[in-house]
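4.2 Preliminary Data

To establish feasibility before requesting continued support, the project team ran the inverse folding procedure on a target of 537 residues. The structure was first converted into the token representation described in Section 3, and no sequence information of any kind was made available to the design step. The complete token record follows.
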């Protein structure tokens, strides 16, 4: 019986097997690397000798053509060709540089014969042809008219008849210009809305579109708008006195850019964004602002944004008609004259404000009549923030609005600006004087076309997009055009769910807590008899 294997035999077998597998793997890797290296050498060689390959292919084709001609030609043509070739050779021999010219002619012919004769692929449909036809087919039920002599929109028709110009970004339609029948009722808002809904459905609902209706020439231009920047953290903006950054808009809506820090924790993360700037004081014809927004649309955030910037060079009076305590963080800050929450407090404040407006107007008139500079206390900006004043209640609210009449009318002269907010359902309850004097309008959140027209005084001409996030909307200054708006991110620093970093950032933007300047505010010697300067929540 054979002796058993030594104890080291299994280990030795495993080492041999492992070494064999390693050798096989190395051999495979070497072969693979060699094939790859050979492929690269072949590719480079093909590029290097491409002219010679081209000429060689042409010479072969020349020889094949000559052989085929000699084979198919009759005897008399062969004899004539032979005689002509012999005479050509003799003539080239005696001409200066004749052999070189002959060689050059042969090479030129070879270059021509060696060209790539692969037929180009058949042309496919133009980019976006299917999408444009889909838009056209969707518009046919709304724009087809049997009385239209041009028959621009017909079932089964071609979009090229009606679409004059179009632009694509990849496969996404970015601009479209079309003509429509002169019999289409383009002055009907409902008819326009139907066309806009079809375009959004066929071109993509995730974007906003600007519609320009040229009713004189029966043309419609649709342009896809680039997305606005996301909510920018509140910060100190590079602006002049009496300029308030309400938010940011499209680059085509303003001719100004300001540096903005997208991440307050990283000072290097600064970019240039187009701002929506509201100018107050004597340099504007729209010193008062009305913001219309639904619940959680961002109107109180807008007031916080205005307050933080107004306190840099002016005074602020905050009126919280809802009693939610959204302005409690302003109490006790320098420049904050008063924070009101009840109708009685508001009456005291507005009574003082009426007297203050009259005092400022008289002081300015006397200074100009005497040729003297206007006193500082008569031209220091004063901002009155009214959060949903329609909630003050019935007849009392009407009396309170009467007290605002003089500050509203003299706001531009006396440097007094009123910022009011309202919900869409509260517009009918606001005093006509307030509606008539607030020529700067802002709408935040989603609204129907009738509500937008009532709030802005004009249709924005912009539709589409998904549900608007908080702080998104439109702005209009006086009789100007309606522009898009994204307000800054300005949370309430006293809310429990506000992150600590945002809370510290907002509190750092406020003036350090302390007393008010003497001789200013309700209760000072200049107006009113309110016993205290500040009544906080």
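Position-by-position output of the design step:
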């Amino acid at each position: 019986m054979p002796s058993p294997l030594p104890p080291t035999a299994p280990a030795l077998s495993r080492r041999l097997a492992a070494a064999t597998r390693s050798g096989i793997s190395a051999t495979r890797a070497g072969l693979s690397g060699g094939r790859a290296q050979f492929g690269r050498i072949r590719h480079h060689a093909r590029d290097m000798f491409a002219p010679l390959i081209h000429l060689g292919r042409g010479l072969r084709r020349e020889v094949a053509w000559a052989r085929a001609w000699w084979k198919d030609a009759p005897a008399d043509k062969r004899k004539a060709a032979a005689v002509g070739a012999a005479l050509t050779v003799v003539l080239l021999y005696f001409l200066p540089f004749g052999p070189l010219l002959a060689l050059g002619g042969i090479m030129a012919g070879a270059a021509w014969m060696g060209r790539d004769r692969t037929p180009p692929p058949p042309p496919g449909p133009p980019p976006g042809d299917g999408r444009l036809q889909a838009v056209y087919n969707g518009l046919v039920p709304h724009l087809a008219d049997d009385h239209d002599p041009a028959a621009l929109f017909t079932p089964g028709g071609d979009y090229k008849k009606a679409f004059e110009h179009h632009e694509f970004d990849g496969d996404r339609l970015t601009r479209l210009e079309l003509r429509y029948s002169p019999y289409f009722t383009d002055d009907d808002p409902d008819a326009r809305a139907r066309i806009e809904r079809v375009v959004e459905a066929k071109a993509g609902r995730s974007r906003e579109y600007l519609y320009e209706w040229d009713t004189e020439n029966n043309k419609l231009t649709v342009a896809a708008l680039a997305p606005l920047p996301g909510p920018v953290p509140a910060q100190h903006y590079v602006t002049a006195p009496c300029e308030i950054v309400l938010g940011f808009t499209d680059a085509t809506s303003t001719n100004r850019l300001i540096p903005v820090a997208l991440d307050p924790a990283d000072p290097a993360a600064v970019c240039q964004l187009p701002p929506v700037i509201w100018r107050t004081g004597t340099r504007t014809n729209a010193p008062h602002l009305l913001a219309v927004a639904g619940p959680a649309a961002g109107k109180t955030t807008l007031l916080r944004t205005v307050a933080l910037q107004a306190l840099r060079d002016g005074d602020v009076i905050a009126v919280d008609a809802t009693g939610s305590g959204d302005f409690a963080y302003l109490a006790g800050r320098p420049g904050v004259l008063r924070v009101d929450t009840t109708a009685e407090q508001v009456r005291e404040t507005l009574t003082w404000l009426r007297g203050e407006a009259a005092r400022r107007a008289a002081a300015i008139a006397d200074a100009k009549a005497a040729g003297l500079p206007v006193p500082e206390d008569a031209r220091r900006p004063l901002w009155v923030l009214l959060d949903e004043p329609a909630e003050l209640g019935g007849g009392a609210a009407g009396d309170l609005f009467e007290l605002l009449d003089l500050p509203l009318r003299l706001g531009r002269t006396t440097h007094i600006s009123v910022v009011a907010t309202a919900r869409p359902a509260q517009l009918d309850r606001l005093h006509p004087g307030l509606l008539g004097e607030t020529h700067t309008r802002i709408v935040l959140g989603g609204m129907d076309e009738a509500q937008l027209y009532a709030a802005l005084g004009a249709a924005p001409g912009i539709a589409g997009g998904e549900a608007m996030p908080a702080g998104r909307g439109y702005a209009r200054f006086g009789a100007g055009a309606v522009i898009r708006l994204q307000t800054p991110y300005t949370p309430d620093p006293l809310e429990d769910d506000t992150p600590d970093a945002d809370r510290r950032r907002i509190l750092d933007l406020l003036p350090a807590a302390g007393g008010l300047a003497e001789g200013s505010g309700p209760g000072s010697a200049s107006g009113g008899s309110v016993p205290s300067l500040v009544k906080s929540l």
